[in-house]
């Protein structure tokens, strides 16, 4: 055997795979250390880590570690999972989060290492970057946004081994919502923990978040709010209940923003709204005393606003309130317009205005000026305002009072405010023509008696009416103004031209008006006292002279006069009287103790007017400038009248009644007709109730007989009333005899 | 347009609520009668709406085309009357049974054949008043509704009285369309018009007395016609 001397060969330099193997072993160990979040010797680990990684990269062997990584991590995670199963409740969650945070860090480190190893172009400059990043991540202050294969791997592994592990998942599904429930019940929980968990789940994608967290949470939320709402609805009034609901809602929203994903907000809100509000919408709205009716009556703006905001979240909640309010307004409105309550028209209209203001305010403050609410409100108002046929008249009376007294001393703005409010009510009226008719009559009185508080206010209202109804509506009204004004000018001119001739006679203030605009009655005249005649004739001459082809006729039933009368003890009083009254009184200048017949002859005033006139002069306490014999209330032909020397009044100026007596025929006629309807109907019912069955001819004659002392009912009207009663099922026609009516009620 | 053939598929659907009634029927009548009832029911289901369990307006249209009758024809109204149908445009099972049983019709062919006889029956004076009054009630669609608008009344008048009193109907419809006092007609006025057609000589109105209990609308109508004639 030859003897060979084998030289001790130097161990070959560790190259390629061998280097990789060695480095890898070190790396593996270090990774494990990190995975177990052993924080000691941090920097040392890192340096080692880097060196080894560097070596591996240098030797260009990047493939091997990948599969190695998978196996390390998987076995690690197995261990973690098993250990987690031993924990429970809050501890479970905390431990899980801890492991997770560590895992993330490890993955990040590994990622860098891997990148380092597997890249072929790693240069020193990026090396520094990597180190820095790794440092940052170890501190937990760096959040990765992009994903890399290693990152993905780490997450997938975590998801598959931990999150998807059945027992853990089940625990998560229970524990996470349980924390939320505790917070709902008032406990303080670890929000940071929750936030971390949610972030973790979100890492794995929305489906995982939904499956593990959101769905179980929504589930328990259903139960929670179902119970909560049922408990509260039994014990709280509506306002309180809604306050609670609002609180809960904002809690949930805050909760979501703090530690959940935004997508959950919508679902939670839906649950709260559904259980707390939607299911109890009707109960809440109509709750006795505390429901919306109570809120409306007490002007609880805050509560109403809350109700509005909350009900708006439901599909039909606002509709419920809206319909309820509309019905409520209709009800109270209908009550307001019941005939028995209508003692004072002016109060009534003021009440309407106040109601309107109230609801305007409510819609503004509580319902966000919601147009649908405005509409519902308007239509309810419109409904009950038109229930009473006399409403247009009442509104005119209201305006009349305002323009005569109410707006005295008011500033321009105040006037505008009041008139605008009136206009808003006016818009609701269906029978605007009736309003116009009454308004014209009232305006006429105001203009002639000069009782209007402000011409500007009058004009302002007319122009508002014009805007609303067009110029046709108001043309006549505007004409009236112009005529009154021009009459004033005419008088001035008259006195300038003829004043010197008239000397000490009575002062005339004539109003020249075109016949068609003003008159609803036929002209009546009477004999004027001679002093008046003088100046009146003078005026007539002047007028027809200056305006050719125009004829003037004195409307003696519309005028007024101021007379100074001297009574028994030298007492003087200035009496404000109507033209007729003046004619009568002037007679007593030339004689006393005049009979009715004499007065009638001298003045030539029509019978009904004269009787009214004498009544107002002789029979009214405090205004009886004449004495009547006998002292009865009614005027009869044999009465005698004397100048009342003993008349006294604490005032110098006495208003003995101007044109108050003078009623428009039409108005009276109309009033009779309106009352007639009710009277006829009442008579029919009374007769049929007594007779049970009656034929048409006899019924008509009975009704006529019954009412003959008051007025003679119109045959057509009677038929109308009968038919109305048939429709309302008070009467019915007999089956066999078509002429027979039977009483039903 | 979908044909009725698809609707006839539900012959196997069972009545849920009326099975006890069916049983009573079966036990009370003979076998032939039972067969008839079954066919009547089957016929019903071929037109009825699955979800509502009633024949709805669409079903009625199909029925009409099968009967070869316009669905605005008065005979459909007469059929409704025979059934005492409550809601315009709908037939319930009970109503259907009532009507068809009375007409002894358990197939479309038989029903079609029964129509002329039904017409005769309705036109008998004793029945016509009832039919006339039914026609009005049938058109009241809303709860608590008591009157019908002028437009619909004119159509109804044509349908129900057009053949019997063509002149009166013609004039009255004209009057209704031109006047402004009435926007709706109530039952009393409706019945009044029928009595008017039957009793008052036309077009001279010699025996009309407005002092009697005629509804006011007829007084106005007579005045209107007279003023047109002069």
Would you mind describing this structure in some detail?
- Chain B: GO terms for molecular function: cullin family protein binding; ubiquitin conjugating enzyme binding; ubiquitin-like protein binding.
- Chain B: This is Defective in cullin neddylation protein.
- Chain B: Residues 35-226 form the DCUN1 domain.
- Chain B: It comes from Ambrosia artemisiifolia.
- Chain B: Neddylation of cullins play an essential role in the regulation of SCF-type complexes activity.
- The complex is a heterodimer of chains A (745) and B (230).
- With 745 residues, chain A is mostly helical.
- Chain A folds into five domains: 17-163, 5 helical Cullin repeat like; 166-273, Cullin Repeats (5 helical Cullin repeat like); 318-469; 485-658, Cullin, Chain C, Domain 2 (Ribosomal Protein S5, domain 2, 2-Layer Sandwich), CATH 3.30.230.130; 665-743, Arc Repressor Mutant, subunit A (Orthogonal Bundle).
- Chain A has 30 helices and nine strands.
- Chain A has helices spanning 17-35, 42-58, 63-84, 89-118, 124-139, 149-163, 166-184, 191-203, 206-235, 238-259, 263-277, 281-285, 292-297, 301-311, 317-336, 345-365, 371-385, 391-406, 412-428, 432-449, 455-469, 471-502, 515-518, 530-546, 579-587, 596-603, 607-618, 665-691, 696-707, 715-727, and strands spanning 560-566, 572-578, 594-595, 626-629, 640-643, 653-655, 693-695, 731-733, 740-743.
- The longest helix of chain A is centred in the middle third of the chain and has 32 residues, at 471-502.
- Chain A is elongated.
- The termini of chain A are far apart.
- Mean pLDDT of chain A is 78; it is low at 38-44, 120-128, 135-147 and 658-666.
- By secondary structure, chain B is mostly helical.
- Chain B has eleven helices and two strands.
- Chain B starts with 18 loop residues before the first helix and ends with a helix.
- The model of chain B is unreliable at 1-18 (pLDDT under 50).
- The A-B interface holds A 695-697, 700, 715-716, 719-720, 722-723, 726-727, 733, 738-739, 741 and B 146, 186, 188-189, 195, 211-213, 215-216, 219.
């Amino acid at each position: 055997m030859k003897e060979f001397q084998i030289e001790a060969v130097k161990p070959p330099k560790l190259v390629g795979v061998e280097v990789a193997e060695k480095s890898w072993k070190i790396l593996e160990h270090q990774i494990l250390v990190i995975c177990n979040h052993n924080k000691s010797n941090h920097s040392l680990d890192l340096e080692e880590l880097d060196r080894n990684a560097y070596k591996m990269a240098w030797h260009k062997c990047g493939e091997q570690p990948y599969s190695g990584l998978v196996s390390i991590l998987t076995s690690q995670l197995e261990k973690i999972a098993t250990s987690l199963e031993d924990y429970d409740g809050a501890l479970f969650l905390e431990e899980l989060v801890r492991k997770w945070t560590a895992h993330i860090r490890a993955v990040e480190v590994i990622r860098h290492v891997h990148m380092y190893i597997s890249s072929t172009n790693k240069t020193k400059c990026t090396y520094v970057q990597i180190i820095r990043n790794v440092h940052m991540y170890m501190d937990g202050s760096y959040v990765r946004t992009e994903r890399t294969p290693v990152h993905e791997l780490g997450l997938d592994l975590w998801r598959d081994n931990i999150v998807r592990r059945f027992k853990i998942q089940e625990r998560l599904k229970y524990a996470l919502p349980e924390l939320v429930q505790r917070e709902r019940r008032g406990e303080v929980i670890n929000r940071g923990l929750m936030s971390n968990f949610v972030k973790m789940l979100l890492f794995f994608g929305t489906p995982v978040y939904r499956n593990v967290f959101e769905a179980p949470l929504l589930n328990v939320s259903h139960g929670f709010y179902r119970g909560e709402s049922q408990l509260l609805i039994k014990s709280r009034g509506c306002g309180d209940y809604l306050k609670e609901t609002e609180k809960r809602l904002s809690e949930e929203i805050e909760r979501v923003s703090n530690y959940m994903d935004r997508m959950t907000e919508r679902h939670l809100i839906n649950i709260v709204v559904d259980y707390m509000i939607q299911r109890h919408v009707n109960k809440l709205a109509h709750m006795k005393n505390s429901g919306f009716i109570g809120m409306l009556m007490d002007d609880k703006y805050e509560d109403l606003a809350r109700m509005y905001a909350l009900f708006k979240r439901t599909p039909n909640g606002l509709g419920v309130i809206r319909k309820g309010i509309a019905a409520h307004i209709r009800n109270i409105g209908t009550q307001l317009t019941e005939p028995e309550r209508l003692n004072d028209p002016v109060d009534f209209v003021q009440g309407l205005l106040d109601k309107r203001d109230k609801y305007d305010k409510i819609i503004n403050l509580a319902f966000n000026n919601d147009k649908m609410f405005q509409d519902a409100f308007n239509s309810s108002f419109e409904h009950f305002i038109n229930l009473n046929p006399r409403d247009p008249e009442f509104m005119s009376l209201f305006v009349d009072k305002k323009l005569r007294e109410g707006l005295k001393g008011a500033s321009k703005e105040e006037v505008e405010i009041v008139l605008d409010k009136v206009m808003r009510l006016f818009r609701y009226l269906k029978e605007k023509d009736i309003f116009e008719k009454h308004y014209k009559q009232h305006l006429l009185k105001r203009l002639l008696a000069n009782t209007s508080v402000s011409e500007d206010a009058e004009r302002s209202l007319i122009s508002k009416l014009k805007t609303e109804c067009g110029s046709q509506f108001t043309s006549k009204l505007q004409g009236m103004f112009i005529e009154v004004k021009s009459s004033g000018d005419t008088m001035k001119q008259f006195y300038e031209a003829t004043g010197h001739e008239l000397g000490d006679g009575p002062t005339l203030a004539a109003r020249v008006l075109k016949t068609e605009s003003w008159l609803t009655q036929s002209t009546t005249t009477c004999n004027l006292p001679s002093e008046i005649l003088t100046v009146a004739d003078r005026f007539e001459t002047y007028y027809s002279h200056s305006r050719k082809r125009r004829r003037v006729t004195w409307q003696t039933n519309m005028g007024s006069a101021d007379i100074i009368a001297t009574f028994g003890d030298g007492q003087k009083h200035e009496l404000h009287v109507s033209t007729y009254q003046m004619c009568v009184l002037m007679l007593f200048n030339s004689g006393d103790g005049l009979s009715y017949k004499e007065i009638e002859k001298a003045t030539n005033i029509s019978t009904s007017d004269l009787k009214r006139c004498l009544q107002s002069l002789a029979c009214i306490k405090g205004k009886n400038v004449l004495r009547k014999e006998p002292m009865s209330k009614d005027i009869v032909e044999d009465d005698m009248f004397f100048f009342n020397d003993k008349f006294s009044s604490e005032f110098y100026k006495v208003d003995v009644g101007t044109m108050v007596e003078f009623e428009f025929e039409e108005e009276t006629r109309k009033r009779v007709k309106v009352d007639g309807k009710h009277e006829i109907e009442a008579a029919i019912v009374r007769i049929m109730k007594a007779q049970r069955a009656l034929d048409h001819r006899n019924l008509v004659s009975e009704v006529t007989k019954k009412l003959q002392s008051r007025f003679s009912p119109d045959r057509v009207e009677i038929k109308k009333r009968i038919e109305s009663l048939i429709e309302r099922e008070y009467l019915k026609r007999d089956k066999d005899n078509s002429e027979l009516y039977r009483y039903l009620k | 347009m979908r044909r009725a053939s698809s609707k006839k598929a539900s012959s196997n659907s069972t009545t849920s609520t009326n099975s006890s009634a069916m049983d009573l029927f079966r036990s009370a009548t003979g076998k032939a009668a039972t067969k008839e009832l079954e066919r009547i029911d089957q016929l019903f289901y071929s037109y009825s709406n699955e979800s509502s369990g009633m024949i709805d307006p669409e079903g009625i249209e199909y029925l009409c085309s099968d009967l070869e009758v316009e669905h605005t024809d008065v005979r459909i109204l007469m059929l409704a009357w025979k059934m005492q149908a409550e809601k315009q445009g709908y037939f319930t099972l009970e109503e259907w049974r009532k009507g068809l049983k009375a007409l002894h019709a358990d197939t479309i062919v038989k029903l079609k054949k029964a129509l002329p006889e039904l017409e005769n029956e309705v036109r008998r004076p004793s029945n016509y008043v009832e039919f006339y009054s039914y026609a009005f009630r049938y058109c009241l669609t809303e709860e608590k509704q008591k009157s019908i608008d002028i437009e619909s009344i004119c159509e109804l008048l044509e349908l129900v009285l057009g053949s019997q009193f063509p002149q009166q109907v013609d004039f009255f419809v004209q009057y209704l369309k031109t006047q402004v006092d009435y926007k709706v007609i109530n039952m009393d006025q409706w019945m009044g018009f029928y009595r008017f057609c039957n009793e008052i000589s036309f077009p001279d109105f010699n025996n009309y007395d407005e002092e009697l209990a005629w509804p006011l609308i007829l007084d106005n109508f007579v005045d209107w016609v007279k003023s047109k004639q002069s």
